[in-house]
UniProtKB/TrEMBL annotation:
Keywords: Aminoacyl-tRNA synthetase, ATP-binding, Cytoplasm, Ligase, Metal-binding, Nucleotide-binding, Protein biosynthesis, Zinc. It is found in: Cytoplasm. ATP binds at residue 350. Residues 7-410 form the Methionyl/Leucyl tRNA synthetase domain. A motif ('KMSKS' region) lies at residues 347-351. This is Methionine--tRNA ligase. Binds 1 zinc ion per subunit. Zn(2+) binds at residues 143, 146, 156, 159. Pfam families: Anticodon_3, tRNA-synt_1g. It comes from Cellulomonas iranensis. Is required not only for elongation of protein synthesis but also for the initiation of all mRNA translation through initiator tRNA(fMet) aminoacylation.
Amino acid sequence: MSRILSAVAWPYANGPRHIGHVAGFGIPSDVFSRYMRMAGHDVLMVSGTDEHGTPILVQADKEGVTAQELADRYNRVIVEDLTQLGLSYDLFTRTTTRNHYAVVQEMFRTVHKNGYMVERTTMGAVSPSTGRTLPDRYIEGTCPICGYDGARGDQCDNCGNQLDAIELKNPRSRINGETPKFVESEHFFLDLPAFVDALGDWLRTRTEWRPNVLKFSLNLLDDVRPRAMTRDIDWGIPVPLDGWEQNPNKRLYVWFDAVIGYLSASIEWARRTGDPEAWRQFWNDTDARSYYFMGKDNITFHSQIWPAELLGYAGRGSKGGAPGPYGLLNLPTEVVSSEFLNVEGKQFSTSRGLVILVRDMLARYQPDALRYYISVAGPETQDVDFTWAEFKRRTNDELVAGWGNLVNRTASMVHKNFGEIPAPGPRLAVDEALTAEITTAFGRVGDLVGTHRQRQALQEAMRVVGEANRYVSETEPWKLRGDRERLATVLHTTTQAVSDLNTLLAPFLPHSAQAVHEALGGTGTFSPQPRIEEVTDLDDDTRHYPVITGDYRSVRGTWQPRAVVPGTKVDKPTPVFTKLDDAIVEEELERLRQS
């Protein structure tokens, strides 16, 4: 058994999330975490809503509410959506907790004490019409390096280089299009050049990362400059230093505090379980492993900024230093980045209405249908296009006609002929072959999920589903009514196959896994689901908020064949999956056109 930290990117709480978001951070992390628990590992899956920064202020102004009120509203929306999708967090919290503030400020103080926070005078952008500071991510222009028109003030997504907003050619505000004014301002910068050697040494040991992620991360080291970690803004975590903490218009950069959320959420989880030091098993134990899940636009923050913060806290940069009370914190074992999910040939765009919200999707379709599509056809290593025609095809041809049909006809034949799982008679070579094929699939599918090749893993599991359907067609149990012993053997073999295939598919399809378990006469929880709990802030009893949590211990060590029990009653089944009408394609395309 190993301890596994599943660190999942924090969805931003300025609005509801769309399916492109969960394709990057949500479903891949949940499939991995569920599999790792079933394989016998001790998993801690954490995340929460990211609630600081200018976009929250901008959206709050539009809606006529305070930043905290806006964050409260969308925190709850996101919690409800992710719970319904079945994401099995041990704790999904938020960045406006007092616990998070305390952890972030401790990280800053120690990194500063070790000499890696450098105070500088810089040129900050201000809106001429409002006087409000414009964060670098809210300024666009032409990249001075590659010429891409659409680079942001902090980095160019086209060439990947770090930028300063003042370097952009023809800069403009993303809020109202005006040309920003640049004024002098004092800020703290994370001294990234002091970590170049340490980051390089670490990255060159990450040989099992996805090649595109590792190459991008190594290329970042070619142009490393200090990066501002404070902002001129009144919404965020105060800078915990005398002369700064009392300034209402200076706050820590949202990306400094957001990545620390993985640590603060782990600490909050430990405190809520009654063992305040339990988080150290996942962060201080060098044998523990940590996997960070996100979309490709966040690689920089997880393979450079966050590791640099961890190194600075430990005093492992070129300036030396000593770790603070959290001790030596593990660097990421792997940064698992997905590419982008587009829709009908275009990029998702909330501002243009080109969006499929998670909650709208789940209101009309089964959550496992969405999970299946993203797992088998999602943006694992390249950008992919979500189309409604392909969603309908995969749901009907693969889930319904393939897996659902196998489950339904197996349970139907068992119920009709025996009413219970029959005891097998002598087994023939064809029976042994199917059983052996499925037994060995546990190793193949597990290895693929464990190395973040989930598309291949699901394709392999569904290939074996095809083998089981072929077995039923070849043995023709409907023709064996005159040979009860052979019929019992075939149906026992088929029932065993469905049971084991259900285990193989459970990380991908947790909702239907429970239904299949019950269709074969199973009782109790086969596939545990997350739940929402209303909690009180650990350090401020006036604040209350929802968290996602759950008890997933029952599945630990279940990634293996488990013999079905003859005599188990099997009732007449109902279909596990809903077949989609052809009309839904045009209906959904019309929704997109109208939005």
